[in-house]
Amino acid sequence: MEPSDIEPGAPSGGAPTAVDVLVVGAGITGIYQLYRALGAGFSAALVEAGDGVGGTWYWNRYPGARFDSESYTYGYLFSEELFDEWEWQEHFAQQPETERYLNHVVDRFDLRRHMRFGATVAAATFDESTACWTVTLGDGREVRARFLVAATGVLSVPFFPAVTGRDDFRGEQHHTGRWPATPVDVAGKRVAVIGTGSSGVQIIPALAETAASLTVYQRTANWCTPLNNRPITAAEQAQLRAECASIREVLNTSVAGFRHEPHDRATFEDSDAERLAFFETMWRSPGFAKLSSNYTDLLFDPAANAEWCAFIAAKVRSIVTDPDTAEQLLPRDHRFGEKRPPFVTGYYETFNDPTVDLVDLGRTPILRITEAGIETADGVRELDVIVWATGFDFGTGALARMGIRGRDGVALVDHWADGPKTFLGVQTSGFPNLFFPGGPHAAAGNNPRYNGDQVDFVTDALVFARDHGFDTIEVEPEAEERWTAMVDRGAAAAPFGERSYFFGSNIPGKPRKYLLNSGGRPKLFREIARVIDTDYEAFRLSRSSAGAGSTA
Ligand code: NA7
């Protein structure tokens, strides 16, 4: 096989390039997959649509963007030296720090020379006679790869609602998921934010600091609780280093990929006073601890959930001085945890700023975007900047846009017309040698931990195929049906409701199918162990007529 000649900024055109493993996407999953593939002795290359490293942490560079998983639980665990040498500045790092970290990883492990930026996949076709993928890039250049690993992420295709007149607006408009690299200066400007999901509630306080006015267009309120971020002290840095091995052990085995201790009591086992004190502790706890360390019945007993929601509502009413605004900021349509809960810093306080207004789209829906601003039944609000914090085509969005065709020319979008079908969230039948770690049916918790598990599995599978002289590896339809049925069955019991984007419900026309792994990480571990114990029984391994080992 030929080594990769893909270099950053390489000119377009030229002879096809051949590699064993082509990774798509330079996000946290793709970087790790490239590292593992090279480490396992494959020739490998990575193509990335953006002009730099980071994936989610490249595109979502909006003011206020930051982790809501603890920095040291989100970063890589594969190298103790890396863990030791990188000092996260905050418990929940801001986007620029994460982007710096990922660039550091790429350079430290000498991965950049295998990457090509500004390279969008336009089509990917499996050639049955050679058992190779031909990947056509946006500039027409082709790459042939034995194995194609789409590490394209679940939150990488921004969603714009079909609002009339979006192109008529004369001011600036940006989606949070495609924020420009050149800073957007909102000082003294009239700004609108549409959407109050995790991205909206992060950007709103940040923009309010300098904008002349900020209008928040909210369709549905969310149960927001404090992130409780703070700098990591020198003593904490030392402790993190000292505990590296145990942190890794906890994260590599924990159900959701977090370090938070689960609680051991149910809501009504405590007296009212004890419960109030516990909720105060939860309110002051970091990020997702409010889910993972809360009462054991929080997500399963509606009465228990209502207690926590009443506590949050009382907090919101105590923070937001205008009672009408406070009521509008309280969800009426879902319980805590039924949608992915956002974690905030100064969000509710922002609405006490006289330059910030909340527009309840339930009362006054957006009629259209005009040249001057946003029109509702109350008239046109003139604006200089519109921010679309309206989410993503979750789970399948990127895979559906890559023009993927497998055996017999079948398109992935047709195979998945009724929703994704996968085994382990890494492969689908009829698409040999295609893997998508970090895609649909993958995570249900701290993403890099699940995605890392999947990358490790994919790498092991590639090594197994190579070492046994096979050049094609393809999941059996029965295994795919079993895993997909498990996901669908578990979806009924999942805490997330059907209005959550985890069911695709935010995208008009998208099948309402559960897009996470409802079996959680333990199920993933069990199935991976079974695959390995049975010498990959769930997969069909074969040799192409052209013979194993040749991609050229
Ligand atoms: P989300 O969580 O999908 O939030 C999107 C927001 O946009 C949400 O408030 C939506 O309201 C709102 N939205 C969507 N369509 C419309 C229309 N047509 N009109 C008005 N408002 C609309 O995306 P985020 O980017 O905030 O977060 C995605 C993930 O990124 C997050 O979970 C983290 O993992 C990081 P709705 O609630 O649907 O009424």
Give an account of the 3D structure.
Helices cover 31% and strands 16% of the residues. It is globular and about 70 Å long. Helix 1 packs parallel to helix 15. The chain is of the alpha/beta class and 552 residues long. Residues 1-16 have low confidence and may be disordered. Strands 1, 2, 3, 4, 5, 6, 17 and 18 form an 8-stranded mixed sheet that branches. Strands 7-16-8-9-12 form a 5-stranded parallel sheet, covered by helices on one side. Bound molecules: ligand NA7. Residues 155, 161, 176, 194-200, 217, 219-220, 340, 361, 389-392, 501, 506 line the site of ligand NA7. The site of ligand NA7 has 21 residues, from helix 6.
Q: Which secondary structure elements does this structure contain, and how are they paired or packed?
A:
Layout lengths: L16 E8 L3 H12 L4 E4 L8 H4 L11 H4 L5 H6 L9 H14 L6 E2 L4 E7 L4 E6 L4 E9 L21 E4 L14 E5 L3 H11 L4 E6 L6 E2 L7 H9 L1 H10 L18 H12 L5 H4 L9 H18 L3 H6 L14 E2 L2 H4 L5 E5 L5 E4 L3 E4 L2 E4 L2 E4 L15 E2 L6 H4 L18 E2 L11 H21 L4 E4 L1 H17 L26 H14 L5 E4 L10
Parallel strand pairs: 1-2, 1-6, 2-3, 4-17, 6-18, 7-16, 8-9, 8-16, 9-12, 10-11
Antiparallel strand pairs: 4-5, 5-6, 13-14, 14-15, 19-20
Helix pairs in contact: 1-15
The structure holds ligand NA7.
Helix content: 25-40%
As a whole number of angstroms, the C-alpha radius of gyration is 24 Å
Strand residue content: 15-25%
Using the alpha-carbon principal axes, give the shape. Answer: globular
Could you say which structural class the secondary elements and strand pairing correspond to? Answer: alpha/beta
Outline the low-pLDDT stretches.
1-16
Oligomer: single chain
Most strands sheet: 8 strands, mixed
Number of helices: 17
Ends apart, CA distance between termini: 6 Å
Distinct small molecules bound, one entry per kind: ligand NA7
Question: Care to count the β-strands?
Answer: 20
Mean pLDDT: 94
